[in-house]
Amino acid sequence: MRDAEIRARLHAHFDREGSPWVDEVTTTDCRVDMLALVGGVLTGIEIKSGRDTLKRLDRQIANFERRFRQVLVVTEARHAPQVRAAVPGHCGIWVAEETPTGVFLRTRSRALGTRRPQPRGRGNPMRLLWLLRKAELVTALGEDPAGPLTKRAAAERLRAERSVDAVERLVLDALVARKGAAGKGHLAAGG
User: Fold this and answer.
1) What does pLDDT average to over the chain?
2) How far is the C-alpha of 99 from the C-alpha of 144, rounded, in Å?
3) pTM of the model
4) Band of the pLDDT at 189, cuts 50, 70, 90?
């Protein structure tokens, strides 16, 4: 099974759930296969198809944990035992299985959402504000993007004025809007 087949199934799943998602987000030191709201929490998702190796998985998970409150690995069945042994117990694991009617997602570990971020600590989504452009940050504050507010000042105000949940949603919505035209993101209705 290829990455594209697993990814298409994830897109359909999140669309059906009404959860916004975006493909392939690059941070300063890692690339995330997908971001989505899972149970209302921004989740970093790593996809491991049958053609992938697991050599970098521990490093990828460590990088994800610095940014996301939840981490989910979606893998083909043949990798499931190794993934389960390699990832911390608080990470979710979904197994993609090929069936005659398409790809089926099975939950292997429901351990999502067991960790909450500490201010400026591990799993702190406030770090994700740097993924946004100045105009996106300033607009979120209701200010004029052409005004004097700097990106740093806007990010600091958002950190002070918004909850973690609100910042996660802001980041995901901005990334979805940016990538949506390319078919790499979807904003749930009403979101």
Assistant:
1) 82
2) 51
3) 0.81
4) very low
CA-to-CA distance for 105 and 84, rounded, in angstroms?
16
Q: How far is CA 135 from the centre of its chain?
A: 22
Q: From CA 148, how far away is CA 166, in angstroms rounded?
A: 24
Residue 72 sits at the vertex; the CA angle it makes with 129 and 126, to the nearest 5 degrees, is 15
Whether residue 75 contacts residue 87, with contact meaning beta carbons closer than 8 Å, is answered with no
For the record, the structure tokens of 31 come out as 């690339």
Q: For residue 22, give the H/E element and its range.
A: strand 21-26
124-173 pLDDT, tens digit per residue, is 667 788 888 899 999 999 999 999 999 999 999 998 999 888 888 888 88
Q: Per mean pLDDT, which range of 12-26, 77-91, 125-139 is the poorest?
A: 125-139
- The answer to whether residues 31 and 21 touch, using CB atoms and an 8 Å cutoff, is no
Domains of the chain and CATH, by start: 3-115 (3.40.1350), 117-182 (no CATH)
Taking residue 61's Cβ as centre, other Cβ atoms within 10 Å add up to 19
Structure tokens, 176: 């979805």
Total residue length of the chain: 191
CA distance 170 to 94: 26
